[in-house]
């Protein structure tokens, strides 16, 4: 059964929705830790470290969301599915696996 544009569109919309929800969760988790919060020194250091990891994950999720929105905006254009670097067609399997892909496998490396 051939894949339809509506299937790809739905996949991208689902990923945008999931990513937006993750970003909201990450933002909540990266709120500052109040100095008067009664946790021990080691626990505070651990919390600060965890916050740094979550902030990095948040930046990755925000980048993914930007890419998903860019791919979505190109969905019904001649540029949809073309690698930004070499302008070759990105295999549909890659688009389905990573809808935020802007590059073919060769150019992504």
Description:
- This protein has 109 residues and is mainly α.
- It has a domain at 5-78.
- Helices cover 62% and strands 0% of the residues.
- It has helices at 5-29, 41-73, 92-97, 105-108.
- The protein is elongated, with a radius of gyration of 19 Å.
- The two termini are 31 Å apart.
- The model has no long low-confidence stretch (mean pLDDT 88).
Strand content: under 5%
**Global Rg:** 19 Å
Give the helix level as a range of percent. 55-70%
What is the distance, rounded to the nearest whole angstrom, between the alpha carbons of the first and last residues? 31 Å
* Net shape: elongated
Helix count equals 4
Mean pLDDT: 88
Strand count: 0
Structural classification: mainly alpha
Order of helices and strands: HHHH
Low-confidence region ranges: none
Biggest β-sheet description: none
A few lines on this structure:
The protein is mostly helical and 109 residues long. The protein has helices at 5-29, 41-73, 92-97, 105-108. The chain has a domain at 5-78.
Top keywords for this entry?
109 residues, mainly alpha, elongated
List the helices and strands and how they pair.
Layout: H1 5-29, H2 41-73, H3 92-97, H4 105-108
Helix pairs in contact: 1-2
């Amino acid at each position: 059964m051939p894949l339809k544009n509506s299937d790809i569109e739905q996949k991208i919309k689902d990923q945008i929705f999931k990513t937006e929800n993750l970003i909201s969760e990450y933002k909540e988790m990266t709120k500052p830790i109040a100095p008067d919060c009664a946790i021990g020194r080691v626990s505070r250091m651990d919390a600060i470290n965890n916050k740094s990891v979550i902030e990095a994950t948040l930046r990755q999720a925000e980048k993914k969301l930007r890419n998903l929105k860019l791919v979505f905006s190109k969905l019904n254009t001649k540029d949809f599915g073309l690698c930004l670097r070499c302008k070759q067609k990105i295999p549909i399997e890659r688009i389905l696996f990573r809808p935020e892909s802007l590059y073919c496998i060769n150019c992504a490396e």
